[in-house]
Amino acid sequence: MGHILPQNSFLRFSEVMYDAPFLPNFQSAVTPNPNVTTGGVVTPRTKSIRNAFTIEESSPISTLTGIHFSYQNLYSQYQDPSFIDSQTNTVTIGLTHVLSRADTLIADSSYNRFDPHGGGPTFTYQLTVGDQHLFSPVTTGSVSLGAGAAVLPDLNQPQYTWLGHLSVSRKINERLQWSAQVGRDFNITSGITSTVLVTDSATVSLNQQYTQFLGATAGLNAARNYSLGLKTSTGYETDIYSQDVSLGLNYQLATWLFSNLSYIYTRQEAIKNPGGDMVRNQYSFTLQAHW
């Protein structure tokens, strides 16, 4: 059934499913959707299934102002019983307002319910305000800052932290572009704990387009994942440092079919973590169909 929307509006449904020996730990050209990653946490091999169903809607409410809404259901299941199966429901509502030709104000609020198998639910609330800025025709940047609160089943009062990001991207020429970002966010997708983690992350990426169909990517990622509000005299209940280096080649086989050949080196140091320290060399070939 068709749905008529106002001009410059959209309504989109999407579903992403990942079934593999382990989930990717960082977002990359191979896994452009962050919902299938572990937020930087490197996990041992076990059959892992993750499914993300998302509804997104955006509409203008005036010439310069728009409103957007999204709902997502995220389901995770693991063969190894030491991992945490879970289901997550997230609702996000936000506003955008054009301040000038160079600046757009963005405000987002979200509510999340994280239900781990065999444990009580965790609720998170987020509110951030930021700006997208056009420095030049080839350079853009964005910044956001706000607060997050988590209501954990093991604690009697909410736990608070600041959230936000700072990013910049630049086109060196028509075929070459680099980008960098640092930020802090909640992590509900690690799979190793029945509570929410806080992720401090940094990312640098380089994209080269050789032809209309052939491109290459390179990336550096680093993250620290730790428990919110669960710090004792010996440190956080979970405390993990991870880094990876990735190289990839992308080739478009058809208008709807894309291929990727990649190598990812990952290293993890676990101050406190059920999975422990880990080094992984991953070679992969993937096919992605879009319709």
What does this structure look like?
By secondary structure, the chain is mostly beta strands. The chain has a single domain (10-289), classed as Porin (Beta Barrel), CATH 2.40.160. 0% of the residues lie in helices and 66% in strands. It has no helices and 16 strands. The chain has strands at 10-20, 48-60, 65-78, 86-98, 103-116, 122-136, 139-151, 159-171, 176-187, 197-209, 214-227, 231-232, 235-236, 239-252, 257-272, 278-289. It is globular, with a radius of gyration of 20 Å. The protein starts with 9 loop residues before the first strand and ends with a strand.
Q: Label the structural class.
A: mainly beta
Q: Taking all residues together, what is the mean pLDDT?
A: 86
Report the portion of residues in β strands: over 45%
Weakly predicted, low-confidence segments: 1-5
Helix content: under 10%
Strand order of the largest sheet: 1-2-3-4-5-6-7-8-9-10-11-14-15-16
Number of domains: 1
Q: Main beta sheet: strand number and arrangement?
A: 14 strands, antiparallel
Distance between the termini: 17 Å
Helix and strand string, N-terminal first? EEEEEEEEEEEEEEEE
Structural Rg: 20 Å
Q: How many distinct beta strands?
A: 16
Write down the CATH class. Mainly Beta
Shape: globular
CATH architecture annotation: Beta Barrel
Fill in the CATH topology: Porin
Helical run tally: 0
